Amino acid sequence: MSSQHKCEPEAQMTEAEVILAAGDYLRTRGTPVTPAKVESFVRERLAQNGQVLPGAAVKEIVTAVNALVHNTQRKDTTMGKEQEFAGVTREGKNAGVIKTERLEQAQQFAPSQPVRPYEVPPLSDRLGPQSGYRLSDAKRQELEAQAGSLRLLIAAPGISPTMKIRYEQDLAKIERLLELDVQSRQQG
Questions:
Q1: pLDDT per residue over 125-179, tens digit each?
Q2: Mind spelling out the 3-state secondary structure of 27-86?
Q3: What whole-number distance in Å separates Cα of residue 67 and Cα of residue 40?
């Protein structure tokens, strides 16, 4: 559908006026005036005004909906801080016009840092040296043995990049636990 011959929304035309406008439009383009072309023009013009005829194509319906949305979008004025609403009772009867004070726009929440709702604080924040985190000697030896085997696995030739990353992450966790244990032993 062409946007070259849009109607102004305030200028609602009668059916006869639309048909005459269709003939004028087609003649100015040098196109023969046929019933099919006039119908197409009328359907398009009505869709641009937010109206559809029975048997409307999807494109006509979309054009009509867009026209209605455009025409009904709220236009703020700078005059006053009062809004008017049509009041209706619970029974559906007209209750007249209700005037209310316009609410200011709500502030948008803009955090200074990205919010990560499921982020767990680092272990050092939860278990610092002052927390008394201390490993038993058996657990410490077990973790040191695991760290050694992970270092060998990471250095092994032919390891896939995915497994190397997993082993490096596991090693970092174990080394952090061992580091916290050393810090708590030095303070205690």
A1: 555 555 566 788 899 899 999 999 999 999 999 989 999 999 999 999 999 888 8
A2: HHCCCCCCHHHHHHHHHHHHHHCCCCCCCCCHHHHHHHHHHHHHHHCCCCCCCCCEEEEE
A3: 18
pTM here?
0.33
Strand partners for 91: none
Contact assessment for residue 171 and residue 154, using Cβ atoms and an 8 Å cutoff: yes
Residues of the chain with pLDDT > 70, as a percent, come to 69
State the Cα–Cα distance between residues 9 and 116, nearest whole angstrom. 47
Distance separating alpha carbons of residues 147 and 153, to the nearest angstrom: 10
168/148 Cα distance (integer angstroms): 12
Helix axes 35-48, 15-28, angle to 10 degrees: 120
